[in-house]
Structure prediction request, 344 residues.
Amino acid sequence: MSSLERDLAGRIYRILHQPHDEQNVHELVKQIYRYAYAYISSKAKSGRLSQFIQLSYEQMAWDCIADMFRRDENGAYPEFQRFFSGKSLYESEGTEVESMLRCFVFNHVNDRLFELLREHDRELSKLTRNLKSAARSSDRVYLTNYESSSWVVLNKHQPRASDHYLLPPEMLEARLTGKVKPGSSAPEILEGCIDVLEKSDCSPSYPAVGLAVAVRALLDRCTESEESVSHSYLEKDARDVADRVINQVKNTLFDQYVGEKVSESLYLSYFDCIREVLHERYEFGNTRADSLFQKLQKHVEGLDRTLYTQYHRNILEYLNRKVAKQLEFFLKKEGFLFSKKEYM
Prediction:
């Protein structure tokens, strides 16, 4: 476990066992806000934030994490206790503690965004009601109220088990591809959702409105013409996956690089370059893309090959390899048919 991971494990341990350590709580709030803001920004860049949510990214981030720091009558933080209780923080390996914290944050962000959509989006509310009605008639799931929301739960399971992570709605949408089509009835749509949940290692339950969010996003994409589906459909999906991977790597390595090795603005520019190159390579019919060096020249004034080699190449190309490795995993997992040489 690295010193950063050990420090993060210590912060989580203290909020569980020393909840009145206000300095520790303050540091955790800052860390969690960063995760929430980055996650919301990535959703917006990939077109997955509804126009009905009339809040800035900053407002949404604070809104989404507020309930995480709710205290009970003893001054403890029940959300942290529920999620981290029983987990061996100091025995975790690699970046496992940070991954757990990110999942904790992303679960809360998605939960709150689902609530905001349910309150303001009438079309989504109608689809949610239809899925809930189908769930009541299903022999594979049951419907229950959990924390003021309706959840669809696989039979023989409890809603939102604390040791399971909620499948991100983007991934649920991707895995529903081919299972849900325009014109599908609510029971047919629900069957597709159940199939995905049964095969997932994540939570065996899901908010009904969350299912509706993923289904509507998928149906919106399916309304494109057959011509665009043959090319731009896969391109857009691949670029969306690339964006998510880039943001994940960027956020994971932020503390390791920013400050000691590079400035924050330069660090973000490196990932902008990686993003631009990948997007060009996924453009149908495009047989070439600018190199990382050519992209960085647009971000760093006066950059020549010598300066690039001396000050930038090692870090930028290492970050690019990290993205490529994680991207290969995601593309294979989600069934995108791209050869490795297309995105390395």
